[in-house]
């Protein structure tokens, strides 16, 4: 009986492996639009897809980003300027893409552009801190997608949305988790809406990787700036010790969790774009698979207990 079950599991794994290794043909005719290509995952993905032979439209936030990417890639790759928070910029980019792709349509869009600051406990923040991040991480994703959706439907192509493990579990304040939960919701309903048109929608939920989003200096500068603008009464409630413990625990967590191998994420993005049978979700990173996703399935009393135990407490905390 045991051998029979083992055999069935082995057959299932082989079947899945064979299914997942199949790739779409004619890469050289397929256009892929990637946002946020100045740095991090987007930059590496643009270079990787270019090497594989895809026609990449790499959207950069800065001119410097465009210039540097051009130097490293073939003339198949086109760079465009894009600010995902500016609808005019999104429309202009879509118009350029429409001209490039012609009757074939657009094979894939990868909604990768994102920001991680300002992030802090909710009571440190103002509504504009939320608006600025939601404008990039959530409304930007929706605007870019809608701007090219007719072209993707024409190609029966793909939408690849970069969310995060923090679209599945929400252990810290600020708009980041809110925005990524929003991306997950947009992703899931879009997947259903687009299925009848032969368009596949995939979500990437990375754990911690070494990019600007997890840059300790940038995180510390962001927290210091937000701390400095707090009223004295609030600073007294939290106490100076709070910041010290926050930085110590951040140093420790980042050391334990951050993975420098960005290819783990880029390989998932590439699979979502080029596999005949892409997955609906990808969770790159050992921490995503072994910590964050399992925690996301647990009862709230367990996850709350876990996060409260390991997070710094304000000086006036009533918790033991
Ligand atoms: N690193 C991680 O651990 C991690 C984990 C889970 C999810 N993610 C997600 O992965 C995605 C890529 O982030 P990353 O880690 O590769 O960090 P990153 O290097 O900071 O990449 C983000 C990119 O988005 C660009 N960008 C920022 N604001 C923009 C705007 N308004 N319009 C267009 N582009 C804009 C940035 O340009 P500039 O560089 O010029 O500012 C940068 O190229 C993000 O959605 C992030 O939330 C990251």
TrEMBL record:
Keyword check for rRNA processing: no
Protein name: Retinol dehydrogenase 7-like
Gene Ontology molecular function: oxidoreductase activity
An individual GO BP term: steroid metabolic process
Top-level lineage group: Eukaryota
InterPro entries: NAD(P)-bd_dom_sf (IPR036291), Sc_DH/Rdtase_CS (IPR020904), SDR_fam (IPR002347)
Entry-linked PROSITE patterns: ADH_SHORT
Pfam family, one: adh_short
Keyword field: Oxidoreductase, Signal
Segment forming the signal sequence: 1-21
Protein family according to the UniProt entry: Belongs to the short-chain dehydrogenases/reductases (SDR) family.
């Amino acid at each position: 009986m045991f051998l029979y079950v083992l055999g069935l599991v082995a057959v299932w794994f082989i079947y899945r492996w064979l299914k997942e290794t199949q790739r779409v043909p004619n890469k050289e005719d397929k256009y892929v639009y990637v946002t946020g290509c100045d740095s991090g995952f987007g930059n590496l993905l643009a270079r990787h897809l270019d090497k594989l032979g895809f026609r990449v439209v790499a959207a950069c936030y800065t001119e410097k980003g465009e210039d540097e990417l051009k130097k490293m890639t073939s003339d198949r790759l086109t760079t465009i300027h894009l600010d995902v928070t500016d609808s005019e910029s999104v429309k202009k980019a879509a118009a350029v893409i429409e001209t490039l792709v012609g009757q074939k349509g657009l094979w894939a869009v990868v909604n990768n552009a994102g920001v991680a600051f300002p992030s802090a406990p909710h009571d440190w923040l103002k509504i504009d801190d939320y608006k600025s991040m939601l404008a990039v991480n959530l409304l930007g994703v929706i605007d870019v997608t809608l701007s090219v959706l007719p072209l993707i439907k024409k190609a029966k192509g793909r939408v690849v949305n970069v969310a995060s493990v923090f679209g599945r579990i929400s252990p810290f304040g600020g708009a980041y988790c809110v925005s990524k939960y929003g991306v997950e919701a947009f992703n899931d309903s879009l997947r259903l809406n687009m299925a009848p048109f032969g368009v596949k929608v995939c979500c990437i939920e990375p754990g911690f990787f070494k990019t600007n989003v997890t840059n300790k200096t940038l995180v510390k500068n962001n927290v210091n700036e937000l701390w400095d603008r707090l009223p004295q009464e609030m600073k007294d409630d939290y106490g100076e010790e709070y910041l010290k413990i926050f930085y110590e625990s951040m140093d420790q967590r980042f050391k334990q969790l951050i993975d420098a191998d960005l290819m783990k994420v880029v390989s998932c993005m590439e699979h979502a774009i080029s596999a005949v049978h892409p997955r609906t979700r990808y969770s790159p990173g050992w921490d995503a698979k072994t910590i964050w996703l399992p925690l996301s399935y647990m009862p709230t009393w367990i996850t709350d207990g876990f996060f409260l135990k390991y997070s710094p407490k304000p000086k006036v905390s009533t918790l033991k």
